[in-house]
């Protein structure tokens, strides 16, 4: 039950436990059978990681990155819905948080969750802070061998991306990151862009 799980997390002080123990705890979570429910995984993502990630002022420790990667490997949907969404909505620069999301997109998340991150980005007003996240999503599209069908952006999400970039062009008239992003879209999807 949600209230009991939140109470247990609070009792165990999971949001402030040492990061090396966080890695052990995540390994233990992955070994549980049956798998956690979506709701339970979302509560744990919030309790284990949200405060830590939102308070980052320097790159995350290797222990925190290991715990995040471990949790993402099995529960990436609830993780994205809770943690990535909170980072995207957070006002201000959030440079470390943005770098972290980019690293997760590039290294840890499954293709369907990469698309989920892009759709979450496109739900909020586009900002300079979010441009590297979109770039990371597109970077995921060009790495390695020819794309398997599940990695290609679906037409509706691609159309929304292009529409958002077009509408935001005046705001980013002097942005180098925006120029790189538009160039990447035009290069990767030249046959679909008119």
TrEMBL record:
Gene3D superfamilies: 1.25.40.480. Pfam families: FA_FANCE (PF11510). GO terms for cellular component: Fanconi anaemia nuclear complex. InterPro entries: FANCE, Fanconi_anaemia_gr_E_prot_C. Residues 4-193 form the Fanconi Anaemia group E protein C-terminal domain. Signal peptide: none annotated. GO terms for biological process: interstrand cross-link repair. PANTHER family: FANCONI ANEMIA GROUP E PROTEIN. This is FANCE protein. The lineage of its organism: Eukaryota, Metazoa, Chordata, Craniata, Vertebrata. The gene is Fance.
């Amino acid at each position: 039950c949600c209230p009991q799980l939140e109470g247990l997390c609070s009792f165990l002080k999971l949001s402030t436990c040492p990061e090396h123990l966080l890695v052990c705890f995540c390994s233990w979570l992955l070994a549980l059978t049956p798998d956690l429910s979506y709701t339970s995984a979302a509560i744990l993502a919030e309790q284990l990681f949200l405060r830590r990630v939102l308070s980052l002022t320097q790159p995350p420790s290797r222990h925190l990155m290991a715990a995040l990667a471990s949790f993402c490997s099995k529960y990436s949907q609830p993780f994205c819905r809770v943690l990535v969404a909170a980072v995207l909505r957070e006002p201000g620069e959030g440079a470390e948080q943005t770098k972290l999301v980019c690293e997760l997109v590039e290294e840890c998340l499954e293709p369907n969750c990469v698309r989920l991150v892009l759709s979450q980005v496109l739900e909020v007003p586009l900002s300079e802070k979010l441009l590297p996240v979109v770039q990371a999503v597109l970077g995921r599209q060009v790495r390695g061998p020819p794309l398997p069908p599940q990695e290609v952006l679906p037409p509706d999400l691609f159309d929304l991306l292009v529409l958002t970039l077009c509408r935001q062009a005046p705001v980013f008239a002097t942005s180098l990151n925006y120029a790189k992003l538009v160039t990447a879209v035009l290069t990767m999807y030249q046959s679909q862009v008119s």
